[in-house]
Amino acid sequence: MSLATYLLYLGAVAVLVATPGPTMLMCVSNAINHGPRPALASGAGAIAASFVIMAASALGLGALLAASEAAFTGLKVFGAIYLIWLGIMTFHSQTAPVSSMAPRQSRSSFVQGLLVGASNPKALIFFAAFFPQFIDASQPAAWQFAVLAFTFMAGDGLMMLLCTLGVGRIAPLLRQHSAIRWINRTCGTLFALLGGMLLFVRRNA
Questions:
Q1: What pTM does this model have?
Q2: CB-side neighbour CA atoms (13 Å) of 15
Q3: Cβ partners under 8 Å of residue 107, min gap 6
Q4: Nearest Cα to 95, choosing from 180, 199, 195?
Q5: Spatial distance between the Cα atoms of 116 and 110, rounded to a whole number of angstroms
Q6: Phi, psi of 45, deg, nearest 5
Q7: Cα dist. 102→35, 98, 107, 200 in Å?
Q8: Which of 148, 155, 169, 191 is nearest to 54 (CA)?
């Protein structure tokens, strides 16, 4: 692809990754409740999910979901149920001292990031429609896909890193003033709302 095309794509990615969504909310919640390490682990899981989604779109699964109402609905319901469940757990959660977090917390946060990142089946359709606009059909597609995919993951990772580090700096103050309960309730409510909204997403919307 040309430099102009790549710069256009870079601008589109900047807008996409700066738009708040479930993965950013997840990083904020984990940074406040558990500290930066689990938050970064959940962000890494979300990025891994993004790569899987982009690869699946390139392999044609996005087109399959666009054509199959049953497959799209099944994945949509699963993703919505998970986000709603995560919202309920977050709403009722009690923060634990960061020093008590075991290494397995990071592993479970990574899995959480994977599930949240993969919770929206429309992402498959989105990437299947988004990437071809920036790929030069006269050139080999594989390396172009790699550039697009890793650019998106780098931008998304940078945004979640900045978000995690920023929130991590004020997290101790929030814990000291017992604001964490209301933050958890707010984040939990938002997760549940996002899950509920996902139920109304349509393939052609």
A1: 0.72
A2: 5
A3: 41
A4: 180
A5: 10
A6: -65, -40
A7: 12, 9, 9, 38
A8: 148
Contact 134, 64 (CB under 8 A): no
Joined tokens for residue 78: 């699963």
Q: What's the CA gap between 176 and 98, in Å, rounded?
A: 13
Token output for 138? 């006269």
Q: What is the DSSP annotation of 82-93?
A: HHHHHHHHHHH-
> Tokens 């919640």 label which residue?
29
Query: One digit per residue, pLDDT tens: the chain, 205 residues?
Result: 778 888 888 888 888 888 777 888 888 888 887 778 888 899 899 899 888 888 887 777 656 666 667 767 777 777 778 778 877 877 776 655 444 444 556 678 888 888 888 876 667 777 777 777 777 777 777 788 888 888 988 988 898 888 888 887 777 776 665 666 777 777 778 778 877 777 776 655 5
